[in-house]
Amino acid sequence: MNFFQELDQxxxxxxxxxxxLCSLPENPVEQAFVILSSARRVILLTGFPVRMExxxxxxxxxxxxxxxxxAAALIGWGAEVLVVTDRPSFALLNEALSYRAPKAALALLxxxxxxxxxxxxxxxxxxxxxxxxxxxxxxxxxHFHNMRGEVIxxxxxxxxxxxxxxxxxxxVTISIGDGGNEMGMGAFQExxxxxxxxxxxxxxxxxxxxxxxxxxxxxxxxxLAALLSIHAGRSLLPTEEQECxxxxxxxxxxxxxxxxxxxxxxxDQLSMTVHLSILRSVTFLLEKxxxxxxxxxxxxxxxxxxxxxxxx
Length: 312
What we know:
It is a single chain. The protein is α/β, with parallel strands linked by helices. The chain has 11 helices and 8 strands. Helix 3 packs parallel to helix 9 and helix 4 packs antiparallel against helix 10. The mean pLDDT is 94. This is DUF4392 domain-containing protein. It holds the Pfam family GLUCM-like_C.
């Protein structure tokens, strides 16, 4: 099993027992690796809203941390990054980015005329890549849904135009999700409809160029950071201490667990111990791959020197 397959298996650990991941094909990890090599200007979109008992709406903890980690890796790789979210998640992203990726720009998707905003920003920024991570996607019925099948249109600023508009300007589109109701997950429509409760209702209509699934969407922030790290030849992953601090700041800014609706330092009901075990696995796989690639390069260099010496 190679690095890409091992990373795929790590991302697909289903601690939440959602049942979708085992029915999906392999994530296109190696393809994502190749595509990320040309990342120069990247728009990141995230933010999934939760309605609280008192009726207020706030963003969940799945999304901001992973997006901030990915933004940090992209900037470390040398790309320019624009992060976009709507009102419920703006404060969460502001805190996460100020800590992990202060050089990333953050834009608020307006409540009114978001289509105009999207067209103007995509045209001005000219992204090479567009990546959505844990962002609601529009289903076939034209509505946004949570995992329970409830319509959440009043909680979400419609950002669905980003996919088609980014493609129109030549950007590669990548979408990340863990349940089937996220933007771009239409690529897995058959599996979502068959294996996810309310799948036929919540499955998003549109598909990205590449769709990546995980047990928790945040994890692909690390997964893509690991792929960028191979290109960079050094780790662009967060440390465990940085990851704990990022989530701590997201929660202090008001973020809640999307499953429990509680303001706790958990993501999808999973404790930081679980999430850090995934980060530790990704870090181990990356270190092993970087070491192997370095050894291969040294061997090739040695052979080249030997050939030149013999020729001389």
